[in-house]
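Provenance

Sequences were taken from public entries as deposited. Structures were produced by running a predictor on each sequence independently, with no templates supplied. The record for LPS export ABC transporter permease LptG from Marinomonas profundi is shown for reference.
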Amino acid sequence: MNKIDKYIASSVLWAFLIVVVVLLGLDFALTFIEQIKKVNDDYTIQSLLQVILYRLPGKLAEYIPVASLIGTLMGLGTLAATSELTVMRAAGMPIWRIGFAACQPILLVSLLGMAISEFVAPTAEQKANLIEKFQQQENDTFSLTGGVWLKADNNFVYIDAADNTGKLYGIDIYAPEQQQLKYTKSAESAQHIQGTQWQLNKVTETYFFADRIETKRHEHEDWNVSIKPEYLFLASQEPSALSLSQLLDYHRYLHQQKLDGSQYELEFWITALRPIASLALVLVALSSVFGPLRSSTMGGRIFSGVIIGLAFQNALNLFGRMSIAVSFPPIIGVSIPIIICLLAGILLIRRRG
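Predicted structure for LPS export ABC transporter permease LptG:
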């Protein structure tokens, strides 16, 4: 049986790899076409290609569940088309054994995807974001969008971007006093010195008085803020750009500060449960190959896989967002479509075998 298991596993794995390459290729082409309008003298074709390539590891990890579904349909479908699955069943091999062999490579690539999500994708995504931010800065379009707002020491702080060394870019500090704006500070960048001390670079200060407005400029200026530098960095990132450990760490910090961290918790569970989601979709694919798609063409199987994958991804997003809207733990919303797929796959497999 070991040879048969390896044969089934290799068929599924090769089909999975083909699907991943196709999905990443389509994503690359569509993103390039969509973003090509942003190219100019500062944001060159090379910069655009860098941004797209840096984001490919994150896309790879994200596509693993859907690629697992379509790859299993293709791999087992090929064996069914050549009657090899029929011979295996006639020789007494149960469906669960075929499913176990098909799940092995999917579990392996899912764990690899988890490693990519933890160690590779966050750093690459953050580099891609910085390239885009620098392009905006060079074009003087450093607008108050896409960054993060914080309240620190009674001031409101906007951070446009940050890197994993703790350096901040595009900082705006608004200091209110009795419902009036006392002063604002804008700095091109800032780096942490020690403790609560930061250094602002290329600072423009604007003070508002009853009868006048004064503006001052400094090359450097000290800035004391009580927030830890690692949390300033995490706050400036989108939840999808953080690793599992960063999501968990920042969610705990927000919980301690009695702030809403549900978006970070939702992203954590979507990433953490991705291997289980992949296995659930493999079970759905297995039940389909032995059921309604048994005599279907390869094109029909691929089309069915795409439809099921899109339905699953939309359900994952829908139930995840709904759980936040109704103040349910995000793990419940993320788990609902996964559990539905698991139960549906198990029931259909038991009925057929």
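Residues 138-145 have pLDDT under 50 and may be disordered.
The chain has two domains: 2-137+261-352, 148-235.
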